[in-house]
From TrEMBL:
SUPFAM superfamilies: CoA-dependent acyltransferases. GO terms for biological process: pyruvate decarboxylation to acetyl-CoA. GO terms for cellular component: cytoplasm. Its cofactor is (R)-lipoate. Residues 1-85 form the 2-oxoacid dehydrogenase acyltransferase catalytic domain. The lineage of its organism: Bacteria, Thermotogati, Deinococcota, Deinococci, Thermales. It comes from Thermus tengchongensis. This is Branched-chain alpha-keto acid dehydrogenase subunit E2. Keywords: Acyltransferase, Transferase.
Length: 88
């Protein structure tokens, strides 16, 4: 199957649920990154952090939900450490 990437961040989109276009099996929707306060338990304070919402829509007849969740977690790890991504 095929996979699409849809980016609404460039036009200011802050979140959306992409729709799979047949015959594709999945689509990843990426929204605009924003600085948001995130609680840091080590510093016991909120710290600014760049947050980029994304959503994965997939055909569950072809992709197992647990595998899709692992993919999303792996993608988040790559995006949280772009230098590590460049070194892979």
């Amino acid at each position: 199957g095929t996979f699409s990437l849809s980016n609404l961040g460039g036009i200011g989109g802050t979140g959306f649920t992409p729709i799979v276009n047949w015959p594709e099996v999945a689509i990843l929707g990426v929204s605009r990154s924003q600085m948001k306060p995130v609680w840091d338990p080590e510093k016991e304070a909120f710290q600014p952090r760049l947050i980029m919402p994304y959503g994965l829509t997939y055909d569950h007849r072809l992709i197992d939900g647990a595998e899709a969740a692992r993919f999303c977690r792996y993608l988040a790890q790559l995006l949280e450490d772009p230098l590590g991504l460049a070194l892979e």
